[in-house]
Amino acid sequence: MNHRFLTSLILNLVSVLWVTATSAAKHARRICPENKIIRNRTKALTKRSAWRLAFMLLFGTVSSVQAGEFCSLPPFNGVVDGTVDYTATVPAFTAFPTQITIDTDCTFQNFTASNPLTATLNFQTNDPSVYLITFNNVIFTGNMACANIDHRIWFVNGSDYGTKNSCQDLFIPVEAINKQNPPGKTTVGIGEPFTYTLRIPVLYDPVTGTYINNAGSANDLHSITVTDDLNATGADLTVVGPPAVTWVGTGIPVAHTFTNVGGFLTFVIDPGVIIPAGDQIEIAITVVADNTNASGTQFFNTAKWSFGRLIDIDGVPTFFNPLPGENGVTQPMTISAPELVVTKTSPDTAVNAGSSVTFTIDVQNSGGSDAWGATILDLLPDAGVGATGMCDFDPTASVTAEIFQADGVTTVSGPLNKGVDYSVSYTAAPTCELSLTMLTDQAVIGPTERLIITYQSQLDLDTVVADDGTVFTNYAGVTQWFSADPDGSYPVITYTKPDPATGTPGTLDHEDSHSITAALSGYLFQKTVSNITTGANPTTTAAPGDTLHYRLRLFNFTEVINDLTVTDILNPAYFDLSSFTMITPLPDGVADFSFNNTTGELQIFGDGGNLDLDPVLNPELVVEFEINLLPGLANATTVSNQAQADAAGLPAFTALSDNPFENGVYNPSVPGSTIDSTDVEIQAPGPLSKANPAQTTVTIGNQFTYRIKVPADGALADVPLYDVRILDDLTASAADMSFVSASVVSGGSWTLSNTGTSTSLVIEDTATGIDIPAGGQAVIDITVQLSNTLGNQQGLTFNNTATYTYNRSNGNAATQTAGGSGSTANMTVIEPGITTITKLVNNNTPTAGEVVRYSVTLTAAGGANNSDVFDVTLIDNLDLGLVYEGNPTVTVGGGVSADNTIGAPDITGDGVTTAQTLIWSLGSTVSSDIDIVAGASVTIEYDVRVLNSAFANQTLNNSAVAQWTSNDGASGGERDGSDGIGGLNDYTTLPAAAAVTIPDINATITKVRSADPYG
Length: 1015
Known about the structure:
Strands 24, 26, 29, 30, 32, 33 and 34 form a 7-stranded mixed sheet that branches. Strands 50, 52, 53, 54, 57, 58 and 59 form a 7-stranded antiparallel sheet that branches. The protein contains 4 helices and 73 strands. Helix content is 6%, strand content 40%. The longest helix has 29 residues, at 3-31. The chain has 6 domains: 3-170, no CATH class; 176-335, Immunoglobulin-like, CATH 2.60.40.740; 337-520, Sandwich (Immunoglobulin-like), CATH 2.60.40; 521-659 and 667-682, Sandwich (Immunoglobulin-like); 689-829, ntegrin, alpha v. Chain A, domain 3 (Immunoglobulin-like); 833-997, Immunoglobulin-like (Sandwich), CATH 2.60.40.740.
C-alpha cells in the first residue's frame, strides 16, 4: 500500500466519522433543544469520541493488558458496571481492565466488597475538558490521582474510597431521600399496617456521611423517579391502599404515576413538576407484614431514585439527567410476636367469712408487638358440692381493667369501659370461671405494657368453723390473643394457650396462682414486703438502695384485743433510716405512730387512748410504710425483719409477725403452724467479662472477635435482668476500631442490633430486649475491625472495656441500672514489612537479541511485632530496548508461601517507543498470589530480551519496587502500598536496580597470526 493511497483512505474515513459525529450532535440538539449547555457538551463529546475512534481504527488498539480502556468507548460507553461480565461479551477481554481512562462523563456502579473496583483511573493529560465522575454503590480499592484536576465527583449509595482521601475536595454534596419508619417503632406484628415516609430531597455530604440540610436542597430538581422494592426488604410486606404523594407543608397532592408490580413500587413524578430549592415532597407508603413472616426476622427498606439537576462544571452550570440520588434507607425493624405473661396477686393471704378479698391479674406483654383481643380466664376455687370455696359470689360487678405502661402506674388507656372495650362474664359452680375478652384498640396491650385487672371475691356463704385453715388456690391465665386486629382486613396470627391448671409457680408464663387461707378464729399478725424499685410483689430479693414497701396486718377474728402496741425495729445496718415514709393514713383518734431515725424503732399505738381491736367494730389494723436499703450492701446479705405486737389489756398477749409467703399462713389456732420472719436477700449481678480472641496480635484491617459474658462467670445473680444493653466505646481504646457484627453464642435467641455508632456500640434486642432469667447468663460475640488509620501503628498495645445496663422491671426504663464493666488484656498491632529487595541479572553484558534472566529477592521482616507479608505486587520498570520475554517463577515455601503462584504480568509500553512496565499482582489480568512468611524470603524470576536496536556500550537500567498488604486476599480496610513511603499506606520498598551493558563486539575481537605448518 503506497502512501498516497493510505492518505486517501485516512481522509475518507475521517470524513465519514466527522459526518457521524455531526449527525449525532444534531440528534442531541433535537432531543434537548431547550438547553444550550447540553447541546454544546453533547456535540463536543461526540466529536471527540469520533476522532478517538478514527485514530483507533486507523492505527489499531493496544490490548487491554497493555493500556487499559477508555470510558467513552465500547464496551463501557460511559457506564462501567460491576454486575456485567465484560470477559463474556468482549472477546479481547481476558479479565477486567487494570486501567480505565476518563475521557467523558463516566459512571461506575455496582462494585461490591466482594467484587471491588480495583482498576487505576487515569485522566487524559491532553484533554482540558472537565468531567463528572459518578460512583454509585462502588467499593473502590484502585488508584486515582486527583491533584491538579478540576473534575467533579458524584459519590452515592455506600460508595467507599477507603483511606484514599486525596479526591475528597472534588466531591459534590448530593441529594438524598430521608426515609423513616413510624416514629419510635422498631418492631411490627403480623397483620399490623404501618407507614413509611419518604422526604425528598434532603442534602447529604458523602465525605462526612452526614445530612447537611434536612429541609430540602440548594438546587431545583425534576425528572424524578423513585423505586421501592419490597421484595428486597428481608420480610414479606404488602402495600395497603394507594400511597400518598404530597407537598410538605401544604399537603397538596403531587402529580405522579404509581405502579406496583409484584411488590416493586415505582413512582414517576410528573415531568412538569419541579421541586424548587428549599421545598420537599413526601411519599407515604402503608404496608402490612404478611403472615408468612417468621418472628425475629429483621428487615429494612431502601428507596432508590434518580432525577435531573444542574451541576457546576468548570464554571458552567451543566444539566445532568438521570443522576442517581443517595438512597433512603430505614433503620432496621424486626418482625415480632406478642408474648403475654400473667401474674396474680392479692394484698391478702387470709380471709374471714363475709370479708372481701381484692385480686389483681397483671397481664404484661413481654413480646415485641401489640397483643390484640386477649382473653383472660380466672378459675375461682371450689371445694366441691356441699363444701366451702369462693364460687358463690359473682365478682363481675367489681371488675376493673386498664392498660398501663411497664411501671404499672402510668396509665395508657385510662379505665376501660366494661361492655365496650372488654366483655366480662362469670359462670358459677361447678365451673367457677371469670372470663374477660378485650374488644377494641383501646384494650390493645403494647410491648412492655400491662393490662391490670382487679376484682373482689369472698368465701362461700356456707363456710363453717371446720373450714378454718383451709387453703383455697385461685388460677388465672391468658388463653388467646392475636398479632393484630382479628376483625381487620389482613391475615393475623392467633396465639392460644391451655386453660390455667397449676399456675406454674416460680415460672413467668401465661398463667399464675394465688392462695387464700380461710381464717375463722383467733387472730393473724402478718408482715409482707414488696419491692417498689422492681415492682415485685411479694419480693424475696432486692439490690442495695432499693425502696421496700412493708405491710403490717393484724386481723382479729374472735377476740377483743385491748391496749395494743406494735413495735418494728428497722436495723440501721441495713436501712437508710432518713428515708422512712409512713404510707398508711392512720385514723385520727384511733392510732398514731412514732419513728426513731437513730435506732430505727417504729411504734404503733393508740391516738389519745388505747388502741383496741374488736372483731365486730374494728377487727383489722393495717400499717404500710416504705424505706430504702442502704447502698453498698454485700451480695447474699439477708435483711431480716419481724414486728412484735403486745396487748397490755386483758387478755394480755405477745405475738411476732409472720411472713405468709414463707411456709404459708401462720394461724395460732392451727397445730403445726410456724412463724416466719420477713426476709429479703441482697442480690445484684456482678460485672460483665470481656475476653480477647485466642490470637492476641492483629494486623491493620483484620477482623477479630471479643466474647462478652453478662454477668461474668462467678458473678451471676438470683434475679432477672431485663432489657440488657451492652455498651462498648471503642474510641476509649488506644487503637482505632470499628464495629462489624454481633451474634448470640448462648443464653437466649435474641435478635441483636447496634443502635449506637460504628465506634460507640450499643448492642441490644430492639424487639423484646435481652432478658436474662434469674441465675442466667448471656454470652455474646462482638466482631470489630482494626481500622487503617495513622493512629494504628506497629507495636501499639491496646485493650478494650465494655459495660452494660439492665432494667430491674421488664420494659420499665425508669428502673435502668448500670452493671459493672469488664476489660480485656492487651492486644498488639503487628505489621508486615519487607526489609530488603535485591535484583540480580544472570548476564550483565548481553548482546542484542539475547535473553537475560532477572531475579528479585524479597526478604520479610521477622521478630516481634512483624506479621506475614501478603499479596505482593512487584513493579519492574524496564529501560527502552528491553522487552518482557516470559517464563516467570516464584519461590514456594512453607506457611503462607506454600501456595504462591505467579502468572504473566500486566504490561504497558512496547519497549521501542515507550519503556515497558511489568506488574505482577493479585489483581492482575493473570493473578499472581505471592505471600512471604515473616523473616523468610521469596525470589521471583523472569526473562527479558534485549532488542536488536540496542547499540554497543549502551547501558540499560532496570529497577523494581514491591508493595504488599496487611491481610491475605482482597480485603476492605487493609493497609497497602498505594500512598508510597511516608504515607498512610506505606507498604512499599525503595527501588532495587540492575543494569546491563551491551558490549562492543568489534572491540572484543583479537587478531592472531600463526605460522602455516604446511608452508
